[in-house]
Design goal:
The protein has a domain of 99 residues: Hotdog Thioesterase (Thiol Ester Dehydrase, Chain A). It has three helices and six strands. Strands 1, 2, 3, 4, 5 and 6 form a six-stranded antiparallel beta sheet that branches. The two termini are 23 Å apart.
């Protein structure tokens, strides 16, 4: 269960978000492909993935980004509190053809708390880490969240 917005009033630099571990399966890739319209065979066909030099079928980058964003929205308690969110894709998440899938490990830490120049709102910058197989898969991952007054 995430932290409610009421709990966010005392947020300070260094606070850690509750870690989140998610499994990504081939079935998740199929569902995401249907929702996004991205049917690139590197996301479902081992032969095609190998032909282009990948170690196997990989998760859609935007799916990985969305799953990491879930860590922030769960913590904030309200997706509308997220003012901005950005990442760089650094490594693929290889999804095996089994029932277990790939383990995505997500963590976050409050890196900055400031007052917005535009509207005076308190803003927390959250730095995120997404790891697969012990390696970071998203670089420069951060979100800005509006905190309660």
């Amino acid at each position: 269960m995430g932290v409610t917005a009421v709990d966010l009033a005392g947020v300070v630099v260094g606070d850690e978000l509750p870690a989140l571990e998610l499994r990504v399966t081939r079935a998740d890739l199929v569902r995401y492909a249907g929702a996004s319209g991205d049917f690139n065979p590197i996301h479902w066909n081992d032969r095609t993935a190998a032909e282009v030099g990948l170690p196997g079928v990989i998760a859609h980058g935007m799916l990985t980004m969305a799953l990491a964003g879930r860590l922030v929205t769960r913590w904030a308690g309200d997706p509308a509190a997220v003012r901005s969110y950005g990442v760089r894709f650094t490594r693929p998440v290889v999804v095996p053809d089994d029932d277990e899938g790939a383990l995505l490990e997500l963590t976050g830490k409050v890196a900055e708390v400031r007052e917005s120049d535009a509207d005076g709102a308190r803003i927390a910058r959250i730095d995120l880490t997404a790891r697969f197989d012990g390696k970071t898969v998203l670089g420069r991952a951060s979100a800005e969240v509006t905190l309660p007054a």
